[in-house]
Fold this protein.
Amino acid sequence: MKHLFIIVTMFFSGMALAQTKYEAGMIKGLEQMKTAKSADDMQAASAFFERVGDAEKDKWLPYYYAAYANYITAWMNPKLDKDKVAEKSNDLITKADALDPNNSELFCLRQMTATLQMLVDPMSRWQTYGAQANNAIDKAIKADPNNPRSYYLKGQNLMNTPEAFGGGKAVAKKLFEKAVELYNNFKPASPFHPVWGKEETEKLLAACQ
Amino acid sequence: MLSMFILAGMAGYTQTKITGTVKDNRGHIIAGASIAVKGSYDGGVSDSTGHYSFKTFEKGAQVVVASNIGYKSFEQPVTIAADPIEIPFVLKEEVSELKAVTVTAGSFEAGDKKRAATVLSSLDVVTTGGANADITAVVKTLPGAQQVGEQEGLFVRGGAGYETKQFIDGTVVNNPFYSSVQDIAQRGRFSPFLFKGTVFSTGGYSALYGQALSSALILESVDIPERSEAQASLSPIFLGAGLQEVAKDKKSSWGAQYNYTNVAAYFALVPQKPDYFKMPQYHTADYNFRVKTKKGGIVKFYTQFNANQLGLRRPNIDDPTLKNAFSLKNTNWYNNLSWRENLGQGWKMNLGFSYSTDHNDIVNQVQNANNLPVTTGQVWIDSTNFGLTSRGDLSQFKAVFDKRLSGISVIRFGGEYQYSYNKSLYNQYNSLLTDHFKSLFSEADLYLTNDIAAKAGVRFEQSSLINKANIAPRLSLAYKTGQGGQMSIAYGIFYQKPENTYLYATRNFGYTKATHYIINYVKNTTLQTFRAEVFYKKYDDLIKTFPVYNNDGSGYAKGLEFFWRDKKTFSGLDYWISYSYLDTKRDYLNYPMRLQPNFAANHTASLVMKKFVTKINTGFNFTYSFATGRPYYFLKQNGSKYDITDQGKTISYNNLGFSMNYLKSFGKAYGVFVLSVTNVLNQDLIYGYNYTHDGSRKEAITPPAPRFIFFGLFLSWGVDRTQDAINNNL
């Protein structure tokens, strides 16, 4: 009887574990990102997500967060080589993309890494990386017209583009309003799907008023 | 917390600690490398000292993997028990195009291909102060090029202007500049916006290019533009309109443009030294199409038609009561068709066809005070009367095949065929020169590691006109000395046919020859470039025109050059500094001995600064150019030799150029106002001296006006299709 109890417990806990190892990993990784205080912490979170991605083999979200966390390191430590950070993130995005092609969130990340590379030398790079960023965000919108992050990111870039080149607050404002509207109705497909960007959009929208 | 508990509970054992270091094969620390127990979530990241440490619940036979971008991953099988394990990793660098050393001796790579090596872009060309968006003018701010203002062309490292050739998409351009006018340098025919990349090679260049003793300016045209656009340009000097249409799928595009330039209004306002009896006028029309192929290749076609004319009178140097009236009519039609294709299995193909035809109608007439033709009876004056009608055609085909070997090494080979047809009528003398010119070339880029690369090539050429062949070897090596730094050496033999001017007299010539030796050091970071170069160039078989036409000339050029570009130190300021030291002498044409040619200054320097002030949407650009004086000579025939009866050096050259770009949108149009001024400080510019026929008197060669001011507005209406798509979603 005692043995049976142990076996049954082990069986159930084993099943539960099989379901939750990935979930637990995702929770741990997201927590790590949330509490990261330095670029090194953030890179550790990125590396963790990459390991989860490598171990799971069929899930795009760990690679998504690995790329996203890695991208953030460039902002946490401005001394990092932005080109190298972008290269690493792009590598991870490519892995995610292979598992879930034509994903709006991944196109958003592509826009972010291209923008990062453009910012290294905007005067001479906007023609190449600026175009790549625009291209990516347009694909993001096409892949999912209801993804609020696409409009937020597009708006952010336009806000920083001189009016003479078609940017400016007035143009950006429309996109932020659209993004806020979508954020208010946004329901992630799972607890682990990306939800970020609402607060930032609201801040930028306020700045456009 | 709960998750941690579950994770811990899963294994139910204690954790094992794994530590170690990650280094590269040179023993340097690798920070940020990822270490993982394969198939598990456990792992760590190496810190700035290369150390890593993590704990794992995994037990038994496992594989620990270390990986980092740019390196080959390394897998280490281990047996994990309770005891801590130490695993040192050594990662090998991946040989990649971005990281590998590139052969840079002699060449200034521009464009975005090798991002760190970027030196000049098309935007740089249009935002260089005083350059008036002329590619050649901007290239003159780089080391190696002379500040020659009395004739067009790039005078590189002791070489004459015709020793530099321009190539568009691989094929040579016969008449890259507007037809020559004595003592006035002409602009290039091609707009900088046509090109995505410019390579200015000051020596030691690839076996793919030939027939240029000194330098190659290699221009690569843009592919499919990002968006459809309509353009207009307005200026007191010119008017233009253009259209660029990109297909919805961005797989093809076409465009056309027309520009009309007439300087009458400007010359009425700003006095010019010559008396223009026919105002300089230029019509330029072009058309292009570009189509992407299914396999990722591209077919590009570009055609440009120019028609221009001018007429000017200047005082006759031998008799100031008389004038020389020079008039010129030129039409030029240039066509280029190229096809770049991936053939699969590591093969690539580049085909280029080009055809150009150039017609000149030139008259020089000695006139009296009433602008009527006169005959003086003095042969040295009357002989300056001439009429010249000429036609020069060039048809060519070039094919280059690339085969990728192991890693990123490449072998490249191909050939070209050129047919040139030059017909002229000088006074009543007819001449015709035709040439079937063939070349075969082969070259290998060998990357031994990321740190050592070699480029070895050979070129074979045959010209039917002089009925001679040559074989030219080329070799360069590059070695990476550290992060961003590298040394290169280059050697090469370069041959060039004599210019047509001499071939009209006799075809009994061989090739002129130059041998280049170059050592170069480059240090690149993303926003800074430093390069230093020393070179020695030996000239053989240069053309002599006296006492007989032959190849007995010779010479040398040696020097030292520095370049520094920095976009980092001062926020928002992009600047570069070039310095060249040149020591050169040559015995050619009618020189009685080896002399420093009149197009070569010993010291040349430029400072280029660009600053864009975002707040006011305005860019400010300054260029200061300096060169020490150039020599001048009067060579007087004395029986069977020429004597130098007068010589000297011009004053040094100082020129501050300025330009301003102000960006503003007008409704749906984006506008750029441009103001550009050359020689802002009104410094004396003397390019050399003209002598009377007997050398008794000389006159300084100066620009037609001390300063040139340009003002214009460039408008574009973007038709960004993706913008529509977004607006539809709002």
Remarks:
- Chain A touches chain B through 49 residues (CB under 8 Å).
- The CA atoms of residues 61 and 193 of chain A lie 7 Å apart.
- The longest helix of chain A spans residues 2-35.
- The two ends of chain A are 71 Å apart (CA to CA).
